[in-house]
Fold this sequence. Notes:
Two copies of one chain form a homodimer.
Chain A: H1 2-11, E1 13-15, E2 19-21, E3 29-30, H2 32-46, E4 53-57, H3 61-72, E5 76-82, E6 91-98, E7 103-110, E8 119-127, H4 131-142, E9 146-156, H5 161-167, E10 172-182, E11 186-189
Amino acid sequence: MKLLEERILKDGKVGAGNVLKVDSFLNHQIDVPFITLLGEEFHRLFSDEGVNKILTIEASGIGIACLTAVRFGVPVVFAKKTLTSNIYADVYTSSAFSYTHQKNYEIVVSKQFLGEGDRVLIIDDFLAKGSALLALISLVREAGAEVVGAGIVIEKAYQEGGSVVRAQGVRVESLARIASMSVEDGIRFVD
Amino acid sequence: MKLLEERILKDGKVGAGNVLKVDSFLNHQIDVPFITLLGEEFHRLFSDEGVNKILTIEASGIGIACLTAVRFGVPVVFAKKTLTSNIYADVYTSSAFSYTHQKNYEIVVSKQFLGEGDRVLIIDDFLAKGSALLALISLVREAGAEVVGAGIVIEKAYQEGGSVVRAQGVRVESLARIASMSVEDGIRFVD
């Protein structure tokens, strides 16, 4: 999506350690009119899939998921992160690894809000090694619901997450795919 | 707001320890079409205030804030919670106490995203003892920005938060105000 690539080049900051900071419009300050356009693009891509629920993970996925759900007219469920396993009753859980914090965490969703017959679109801000996305997919499947696809704002295409998830037969649509990124050479997108 | 009161009576669950669970539509599953109506009400209430930024706190405020910001056409900034003080540079910080987790935490907002001239509407899901809201107000003032008001979905009016914040001269608009609540007698709203 050209508009997003231009915005990343204009406002994104590449930092040490493979970090892309886009917190001026995506995950600390949320440019709501702009993110609404991304939501419309996700709707265009997945409008034929009979989506009845959007799933994301706290915290930075929530805004994008809600602004996408406006166009679908469906609810958002956000998975909660917790460091403690099995403290909740009646939840689906799945494990993920945070490369930022270098530790495992559990994600949980109440069984009330996900189940058989649900056609779930997963929305998230970033896809890199895929740990969070794989955990969300596993959780949807555990619930007996169907993953119709994943809508990602920014995919680091030079990392393995996208390939691993696509190899599972999940349709992944990333609005910007970064081919390479460094402080010296800046950001290049996949053609 | 009648529509919200009816929804709380229908789907809210009063639990032990002064807990109102509204996670089927507000803070785990988000009923986006319904919350959009709440956002429109916040817009009606604060449309004359020249709001140019909406501030909330992660995680459960983000959805409501974004769905309100759609009508205002302004960005959302969400404060991040952290247990560690002073680990970030160039941020405004403020302290709050979590009654749920019985511990203090810091909230932080990057100095880039809040400053002089900003007219800030604070949005949050709950107001009870007011700790989080007071921390947000303090943070906005530290930034030299102006709080034009606070839009709250559910106020526990039998707790002191609302009075304390209003006594500071801040306009607080709560869409539902609970007068009393118990497992035995259910929920009563302020007339």
